[in-house]
UniProtKB/TrEMBL annotation:
Family stated for the protein in its record: Belongs to the enoyl-CoA hydratase/isomerase family.
Matching InterPro entries: ClpP/crotonase-like_dom_sf (IPR029045), Enoyl-CoA_hydra/iso (IPR001753), Enoyl-CoA_hydra_C (IPR014748), Enoyl-CoA_Hydratase/Isomerase (IPR051683)
Designated name of the protein: Enoyl-CoA hydratase family protein
PANTHER family per record: ENOYL-COA HYDRATASE (PTHR42964), POLYKETIDE BIOSYNTHESIS ENOYL-COA HYDRATASE PKSH-RELATED (PTHR42964:SF1)
Pfam family, any one: ECH_1
Origin species: Streptomyces cynarae
């Protein structure tokens, strides 16, 4: 659909590939817009049974692009679009996922990764909070595990991501892991898939309805704060921010 999001179709499955290696598939305004357009096209195509979201390079998504961040409202819209899409959306991850990229995983209906993948909620380390991405994540993940990872920003592996509910499954070969799932989606009736997804996402969408405005405002406030400016500057300069002791 765009230079940043490539689309392919095979036997009822449309694959959307994030292809912005220059910034490790970070969520720039352009990438968010391109992915939203590609999802809209999938939702209108009767031949699309399900959508696979994957990536080029060694990083699925590095989080928000600090040089060209999307407005919080745009990210909320993208996450909700994934949740509301009448087709199941499946994340296929063979690389690293950070910060806002984890929101994409949380919004997807199924998420699988290779055991080489790593994960981290790095927001607290640059002076912000995982606010907007909490909309799909909090209803779907283990609260105690998420508390640790939100507060510390530690890196964790694919088995831990499965345990927390961030991933559906993981294995050395992610395509072998996904093969029976995609076969199941191809065998399912389109109407049945849409209505079953509607049942499964009802609680997530209630969270969007209740909390989206507050979390969008929180994200905007934190990103404009002095601590966030210091944290983002330190990140871009590859140094520790001033508060590290």
């Amino acid at each position: 659909m765009t230079d940043l999001v490539r689309t392919a179709h095979d036997r009822g499955i449309s694959t959307l590939t994030l292809d912005s290696p220059g910034n490790r598939n970070a969520l720039s305004a352009a990438l968010v817009g391109g992915l939203a357009d590609a999802l809209t096209a999938c939702g209108k195509d009767r031949d699309v049974r399900a959508v696979v979201l994957t990536h080029t390079g060694t990083t699925f998504c590095a989080g928000a692009d600090l040089r060209d961040p999307p407005p919080p409202e745009a990210l909320v819209g993208l996450l909700r679009q994934i949740v509301e899409l009448s087709r199941p959306v499946v994340a296929r991850v063979t690389g690293h996922v950070r910060a806002g990229g984890l929101g994409l995983l949380g919004a997807c209906d199924i998420a699988a990764a290779s055991t080489a993948a790593t994960f981290a909620f790095t927001e607290v380390r640059i002076g912000v909070a995982p606010a907007v991405i909490s909309l799909p994540l909090l209803p779907r993940t283990d609260p105690r595990a998420l508390t640790r990872h939100y507060l510390t920003g530690e890196r964790f592996d694919a088995p831990e991501a499965v345990r927390t509910g961030l991933l559906t499954a993981a294995g050395d070969d992610v395509d072998q892991v996904l093969e029976p799932m995609l076969d199941g989606l191809r065998r399912a009736a389109p109407q049945a898939l849409a209505e079953t997804k509607r049942l499964l996402t009802a609680t997530v969408l209630q969270t969007f309805d209740r909390d989206a405005a507050d979390l969008t405002a929180l994200s905007a406030r934190l990103f404009s704060s002095p601590q966030a400016r210091e944290g983002m500057t330190a990140f871009l300069e590859r140094r520790d921010p001033q508060w590290v002791v």
